[in-house]
Amino acid sequence: MNYIKHLTAFFDRIIRDNDLNPTHISLYIGLFQHWNVNRFISPVSISRDEVMRISKIASKATYHKCMRELHEKGYIRYEPSFNPFKGSMVHFFNFSDDLKPVQKRTSQPKKILPNNEQALNNRQTSNETGIEQAVVPSINYINKTNISNNSNLGEQATKSKKENQILKNENDTQKKLREKKGTNQEIKTPPAWEIVQEFFSENNYPEIEAQKFFHYFSSNGWLIGGKTPMANWEAAAQNWMLNATKYNQSAPIKNDRAKYLHTATIKDYSEPL
Predict the structure, then answer these.
(1) In what ranges is there compositional bias, type Basic and acidic residues (predicted)?
(2) Could you tell me the pTM of the whole model?
(3) Domain total for the chain?
(4) Domain boundary pick from 81, 98, 115
(5) Are 210 and 196 in contact (CB under 8 A)?
(6) What is the 3-state secondary structure (H, E, C) of 10-74?
(7) Does a structural domain hold residue 23?
(8) Distance of CA 144 to the CA centre of its chain
(9) For residues 41 and 89, is the Cβ–Cβ distance under 8 A?
């Protein structure tokens, strides 16, 4: 028995049978596997649990319903066994004889068409002849397409290269500006103590303020706010002087001495009541 022809004929039958669903097909394939394992001997003894496991059917009611309908439609002949120790019997029908032999086509010489005509569709069935026009790209058309694509790719590559160069130039310019700006902001050489002392003395400020200013900015690396490099130490010193004037203004002295009680008569509190 040719099982390939058998399955081909089976699928031809289920295409025309609108009453079958995927569960019927899965059950028949599970039964066919049992038939194949037993070397296509008919009838075949089957186990319900084994067939349900192979065909992926989880419901016993669905299994019996599909088995009964396959029997009624002539796909198999089912002989159920009501004995739990004896398997049911399934008779298979050979569908390979239902296939019609395929006739070989007689080879026809190919028709050579002129260059200005378009080829017709050579695909045809046994009942009709194709009349559609086949889209047959010529070699010249393919070559033109490839040339066009290559030129477009070349233009895109050149454009991308120019854009990358422009971005690189902009980045270099911004980097130089940042470096120049940072150089202008930083103090190349911090002022010496004598210069700071002389500057405060010229502005009539005491030496103690000059010491505070010098030691404070020397400790933090001459940074404004601890972050920004100092650009002009003289301007920073002027700002220091203004703040020193503001914070060193004489504040009113608080008299925390206890005040006497204001009474009309002087009373001696040592006398007993």
Answers:
(1) 158-174
(2) 0.38
(3) 2
(4) 98
(5) yes
(6) HHHHHHHCCCCCHHHHHHHHHHHHHHHHCCCCCCEEECHHHHHHHHCCCCHHHHHHHHHHHHHCC
(7) yes
(8) 38
(9) no
